[in-house]
């Protein structure tokens, strides 16, 4: 592939990555506690969209904090996995393999 063709391919891949990142704002991930007392919805870009808390959790601040940490971490982990999977799909298909440039498109 010539240099101009490679530069064009890189620009096209970058555009597709930006489009994918925007689309990830519309992918919602729901995570909840096993007992259903807390539910969190975030985007695949890890923006919190909703938190639903059962009234019983409002009576115990420490328990609520523990639930929030646990459920938020699980939701963020899922979002990161979806996010990376979507970006990997774009870069593996569209990006020319240039050693040392893999991290530029993440």
| Through-space gap between termini | 23 Å
Helix run count: 2
Using the alpha-carbon principal axes, give the shape.
rod-shaped
Q: What do the pLDDT scores average to?
A: 86
Strand fraction equals 15-25%
Question: Could you name the key traits of this structure?
Answer:
three-stranded antiparallel β-sheet; 106 residues; alpha+beta; 2 helices
Write structural notes for this entry.
The protein is an alpha+beta fold and 106 residues long. Helix content is 53%, strand content 16%. The protein is built from two helices and three strands. The protein has helices at 3-24, 61-94, and strands at residues 28-32, 38-43, 48-53. A three-stranded antiparallel beta sheet has the order 1-2-3, covered by helices on one side. The two termini are 23 Å apart.
In short:
With 106 residues, the protein is an alpha+beta fold. The chain has helices spanning 3-24, 61-94; strands spanning 28-32, 38-43, 48-53.
Helices, strands, pairings?
Layout: H1 3-24, E1 28-32, E2 38-43, E3 48-53, H2 61-94
Antiparallel strand pairs: 1-2, 2-3
């Amino acid at each position: 592939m010539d240099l101009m063709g490679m530069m064009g391919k890189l620009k096209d891949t970058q555009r597709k990555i930006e489009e994918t990142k925007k689309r990830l704002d519309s992918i919602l991930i729901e995570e909840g506690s096993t007992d259903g007392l807390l539910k969190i919805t975030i985007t695949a870009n890890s923006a919190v969209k909703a938190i639903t808390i059962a009234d019983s959790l409002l009576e115990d601040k420490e328990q609520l904090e523990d639930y929030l940490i646990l459920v938020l971490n699980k939701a963020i982990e899922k979002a990161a996995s979806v996010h990376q999977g979507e970006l990997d799909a774009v870069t593996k298909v569209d990006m020319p393999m240039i050693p040392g440039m893999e991290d530029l498109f993440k």
